[in-house]
Amino acid sequence: MGTVDVEAEWFLVAKMRAFVEAQDPSAKEADNFTLRRFLRARDLDIEKGSSLFLKYLKWRRQAVPNGFISESEIQNELPQRKVCLQGFDKVGRPVVVGFAAKHDYSKRNMDELKRFVAYFLDKACARMPSGQEKFICIADFKGWGYSHCDIRAYIAALEVMQNYYPERLGKVLLINVPQIFMKTWKVVYPFIDKNTKEKFIFVDDKKLQETLLVDIDESQLPDIYGGKLPLVPIENA
């Protein structure tokens, strides 16, 4: 996305608002920051940004009709304890920790998985302080092997995040990544949009704590990585 004047960007948001509200009256409930995220996700192209946002409204009505996803709707996903949420990084982004080896492919139902992704993204967004629109993620692949490989699930999770939560991801720090994962990464990588690809950072095992501490203060870093905070399962966050 090229550099654009802030005033000019808000002018584009106003034009986008007029367009989407004419198409879907429920768009009136969205604030300008939400519209701006969808606009930025499509490089300030009003037509493309509006299309993405209108698809989001339709998805939200169908996938989250009650306005939130309850734990009872993700009963197979929650017991796996594969996502935690605690603390904030140095710029106030909530810290999400995901454990790839805890994903149980044998129990995966695709619709439930998508609900689970929306559930933890809603939780992360709800924890963002005023003025902050992004979260940071530590993706831990310790113990990951081919038995945990679920390319369809990875792509589905990416699609939920990119299509319905654009510009929410600040950075993903991939840690403890085994070499065999790189074959899977080559398959998944083309499904990551160009604005998101640069946000995935592979961390050198030898510089793990050092790298994490660049973004996250020791007081906010999970204790399993040498920090001070205990992990908090997503449902308890």
Automatic annotation (TrEMBL):
<feature type="domain" description="CRAL-TRIO">
    <location>
        <begin position="71"/>
        <end position="233"/>
    </location>
</feature>
<dbReference type="InterPro" id="IPR001251">
    <property type="entry name" value="CRAL-TRIO_dom"/>
</dbReference>
<dbReference type="InterPro" id="IPR036865">
    <property type="entry name" value="CRAL-TRIO_dom_sf"/>
</dbReference>
<dbReference type="InterPro" id="IPR036273">
    <property type="entry name" value="CRAL/TRIO_N_dom_sf"/>
</dbReference>
<protein>
    <submittedName>
        <fullName>Sec14p-like phosphatidylinositol transfer family protein</fullName>
    </submittedName>
</protein>
<dbReference type="Pfam" id="PF00650">
    <property type="entry name" value="CRAL_TRIO"/>
</dbReference>
